[in-house]
Amino acid sequence: PAANPTAMRRILPGGMVERGGCPFDPPPGLVERRGKGAVQPLPLLNGAEAWLVTGFDEARTVLADPRFSADRMRHREATSLQPHEVEALKAGTLPQGPAIETREDGFFVFMDPPEHTRIRRLLTGQFTVRRMKALESRVTDIAVEHIEAMKAAGDHADLVPAFALPLPSLVICELLGVDYADRAEFQERTAISLNSNTPPEERAKAGAELYAFMQGLVAAKRAEPGDDLLSGLIHEAEPPLTDGRLVDIALVLLGAGHETTANMLGLGTFALLENPGQLDALRADPSLIDNAVEELLRYLSIIQLGVSRVTTEPVTLGGVDIPAGATVVVATPEVNRDPQHWPDPDRLDVLRPRTSHLAFGHGVHQCLGQQLARVEMQIGLRELITRLPGLRLAVPADQVPLRNEMLIFGVHSLPVAWS
Ligand code: HEM
């Protein structure tokens, strides 16, 4: 189905895609806007003005030009899209809804230079080659352990809870130095707080527990440093970071590194299973895996509407005048299928020559964990393919529930079987 570039998926109740639609196409609300310009007004917001950017070059400008601020608090009326707006925009049913809510955040993801630069540098200094190398062998161990556990339990499983969610969660435990004894609690709290299907009170409770967990972790690392990133930050940052800032950083790493990688593993496996020719090419030549991961990042662009900025002054972008204080949303799935940059962009092609894509963003906020995410995807997908011969979907493709309603696209579950 992915070979049909004109297929437009329709989403049915329950999150499934109508039979015949391609689950990996960008959301219908974005596909409908094709041909309407690289920079388009978003006709939704009462009060706040917003623009949608679908062109590759224009998106790079937004992410590299300091006139586009990541500080959503700079203009209180402008902030990122809220989940209900994201859902409506993707479905093409965006109502003239209430004005976008504002949000208060102290996270460095929402800061501009020079404040952002200081924290970013401290963190970059902790993502050392030595630490990443050490993590690589742990990623392999974790992937193999989980696949062998799946095999020991039978010949089928739901890949999301059995593999895609625990792998990145445990890698973040390694990165932060969470004790083995505490990992089950950590994983449980994380899963609840990240799942927008759980009632808000429960999510808030799990979020508060996670915050307390991180406070405990920071206190433990202060008392007894380990070889982990958090200990490194505590003992090397000059001037020292406060406990509150350290907890924020730990939560950012968790928030940014868990749900994203988990969904790339789940959705990436689904995309390969639905494109058997591509999967065969990978099986025949496993050295293609690095290329395949880049292509999956481009093709799936799971952060569909999560990258946004606020203009600090009037800007002309792609010939369109945007006033100061406007929200500019980068439509990553469309940007990464810009036909001026990729021939036949709606096709998954693991042999495609490697080119830059914006799945990890661009500019000063470009994904800090991208090397780690790549390693997790390369090792995770390689081990799945080689250790589970005959890996296949255990349900028809149109029965796989997609995360259409979520900020980060993916699959809620992925029933698979093997021989
Ligand atoms: C930032 C994507 C995995 C940590 C970003 C941004 C994108 C992104 C698009 C830029 C956001 C913006 O400019 O507003 C992804 C994807 C991943 C992934 C698709 C998985 C496939 C990870 C992992 C980690 C991580 C594994 C860490 C363990 C971060 C951090 C930032 C970030 C800390 C903020 C950087 C800053 O503001 O300076 N990511 N990410 N990400 N990512 Fe990732």
From TrEMBL:
The keyword Iron applies. Gene3D superfamilies: Cytochrome P450. Keywords: Heme, Iron, Metal-binding, Monooxygenase, Oxidoreductase. Pfam families: p450. The keyword Heme applies. GO terms for molecular function: oxidoreductase activity. CDD domains: CYP105-like (cd11030). Its EC number is 1.14.-.-. It comes from the Bacteria. Belongs to the cytochrome P450 family. This is Cytochrome P450.
